[in-house]
Design brief:
Rossmann fold; 18% strand; seven-stranded parallel β-sheet; 327 residues; D-isomer_DH_NAD-bd; oxidoreductase; 29% helix; NAD; alpha/beta; elongated; five-stranded parallel β-sheet; 9 helices
């Protein structure tokens, strides 16, 4: 487990693993990738830092130290999240450090979470929970079902595709929105972003899976909500930065939006002083939609596949981030 980086200094190649990666995965890596010392990040000493070549899972404190080291040999970071805005991508590009994300492992749990938020309103589950806390039997609650509803999903990547498939059993019409207009299975139709304003008024449920980019900042603003169908259900499971929250609150108060389910908000954790907490028709899920006890079981095969390629070529393919685009 030694290598020469081109000078006289002989160092070990270390694969540093974040503390919450399961032990069985660490053990498997140790058995299969003998060219690396596989160690949990918290077990490494300062003298080990220059030898770290790969990070499986992001340890922020260690990562920041490595990026400041003049003799660092860090070559690749496998992030645990789909979004990678927490990384200084310009710096990674400058240092020629590869970055890969966890895209492709969130579809199932996020689809279930989004359905849960919708049902919390349409089936009055949220209100029933509130009523139970005060022992109130309120039978005459307005309910509806999904059958016949027009649903639009902004974002047709892996999560959007799994969500569309999940929704297909409910006799709904699902429209996807993307940049290219490319079709995908389980969507009844696909429209381009520029076509959306002319069609917004037909949708009963609007689901955002938008990433965080300069183009999506405050995408859901006053002009946007002027175009939606009155009483629309709005779900945001993409990025909190896409929503002008003051405008959303106003839309919820005036009936433009009948219900909003928010898995993400602009500032997390959401401050206790935020007006979002006070809105009776807003449900806040504390960024849990992508969480599951199966998370790292789904990420590990992606990481192993890339690691095998990285050993051979020094490059990766699956979920590789284009550091000039941010995704």
């Amino acid at each position: 487990m030694i290598t020469n980086y081109g000078g006289n200094k002989i160092v070990k190649k270390i694969l540093a693993v974040a503390k919450h990666i399961p032990l069985n995965q660490v053990t498997e890596l140790q058995k299969e990738f003998l060219n690396y010392q596989v160690s949990y990040a918290q077990d490494l000493e300062t003298a080990d830092y220059p030898s770290i070549e790969i990070m499986y899972g992001w340890s922020a404190s260690l990562g920041k130290k490595l990026l400041k080291l003049t003799d660092s040999h860090l070559k690749w970071i496998q992030a645990e999240s789909a979004g990678v805005n927490q990384f200084d991508q310009a710096l990674l590009a400058k240092k020629n450090i590869l970055l890969s994300n966890a895209s492709g492992i969130h579809g199932q749990q996020m689809s279930e979470s989004i359905l849960g938020m919708i049902f919390a309103y349409t089936r009055q589950i949220r209100q029933s929970i509130l009523n139970q806390e005060v022992a109130e039997w309120q039978h005459a609650l307005p309910t509806t079902d999904l059958a016949g509803k027009q649903i639009v999903i902004l974002g047709t990547g892996h999560i959007g595709q799994v969500l569309a498939k999940t929704l297909s059993v409910f006799d709904v019409t699902v429209t996807g929105v993307n940049r290219s207009g490319q079709n995908y299975d389980y969507f009844d139709s696909i429209i381009k972003h520029e076509e959306l304003p002319n069609k917004l008024s037909q949708f009963d449920i609007l689901i955002s899976l938008l990433p965080e980019t300069n183009e999506t900042l405050n995408f859901f603003n006053r002009e946007f909500f002027k175009m939606v169908k009155k009483g629309v259900i709005f779900i945001n499971a993409g990025r909190g930065s896409a929503v002008d929250e003051s405008v959303l609150i106003e839309a919820c108060q005036t009936g433009i939006v009948s219900f909003a389910g928010l898995d993400v908000v602009k500032h997390e954790p959401l401050p206790k002083t935020s007006d979002l907490w006070e809105q009776p028709n807003i449900l806040i899920i504390p960024h849990l939609a992508g969480s599951t006890d199966q998370y790292f079981n789904r990420l590990f095969p992606i990481f192993k596949e890339n690691l095998q390629l990285f050993e051979q070529t020094g490059d990766i393919i699956r979920n590789k981030i284009d550091l000039t685009k941010g995704y």
